[in-house]
């Protein structure tokens, strides 16, 4: 899903963001959470009208040994609405990412489709991730899915790269770059795509 109407949300302190989509409105929300201090943030999108579509694309990179508590809400109030939330967390050192993903599909939201996935890469044995998907579905004729994955750089990737004479730090930089690009390459606006990608690379360049 590539929705051309885009809003970029850069979160670096406690923040609450909410938006409402009327009938037929389509919008992509790009959010980067890259704080230097612990924070709590909430992002909520309410699909109020029929055929409204929302795509949330997010990257979390705590810059120090801090805690990030983030919640997103996909609120379906009308029929045939669509929402997708794709979130990637890059967790270093002793940082904690705590994420709660809320999906609500109301009684009059038949034909709606909601999806949510949180993928976390752990670059330290002390890095921590908590993910809580919360789904409330009040109509049977809908589609709703969620997924969670947490992993370090896979051992087979490390082994293969080392057979190509790459050092550990080189491998980490390449793998992290691909991990970030999975989200940034989905951003349809080239200016926002480059802005988010370059900010992420500036944060991770010390790896």
UniProtKB/TrEMBL annotation:
What GO terms in the biological process aspect are recorded for it?
A: iron-sulfur cluster assembly
Q: What domain of life does the native source organism fall in?
A: Bacteria
The record places domain SUF system FeS cluster assembly SufBD core at: 37-179
Pfam families linked: SUFBD_core
Know the name of this protein? SUF system FeS cluster assembly SufBD core domain-containing protein
Annotated source species: Candidatus Gottesmanbacteria bacterium GW2011_GWB1_44_11c
């Amino acid at each position: 899903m590539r929705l051309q109407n885009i809003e970029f949300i850069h979160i670096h302190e406690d923040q609450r963001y909410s938006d409402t989509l009327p009938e037929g409105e389509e919008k992509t929300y790009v959010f980067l959470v890259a704080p230097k201090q612990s924070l709590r943030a909430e992002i909520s999108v309410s699909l109020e009208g029929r055929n409204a579509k929302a795509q949330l694309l997010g990257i979390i990179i705590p810059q120090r040994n801090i805690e990030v508590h983030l919640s997103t809400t996909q609120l379906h109030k009308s029929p045939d609405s669509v929402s997708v939330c794709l979130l990637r967390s890059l967790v270093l050192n002793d940082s904690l990412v705590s994420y709660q993903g809320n999906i609500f599909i109301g009684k009059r939201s038949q034909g709606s489709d909601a999806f949510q996935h949180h993928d976390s890469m752990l670059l330290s044995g002390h890095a921590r991730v908590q993910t809580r998907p919360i789904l409330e579905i009040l109509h049977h004729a809908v589609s709703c899915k969620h997924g969670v994955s947490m992993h370090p750089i896979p051992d087979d990737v490390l082994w293969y790269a080392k057979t190509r004479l790459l050092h550990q730090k080189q491998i980490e930089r390449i793998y992290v770059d691909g991990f970030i690009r999975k989200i940034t390459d989905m951003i349809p606006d080239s200016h926002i795509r480059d802005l988010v990608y370059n900010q992420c690379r500036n944060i991770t360049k010390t790896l």
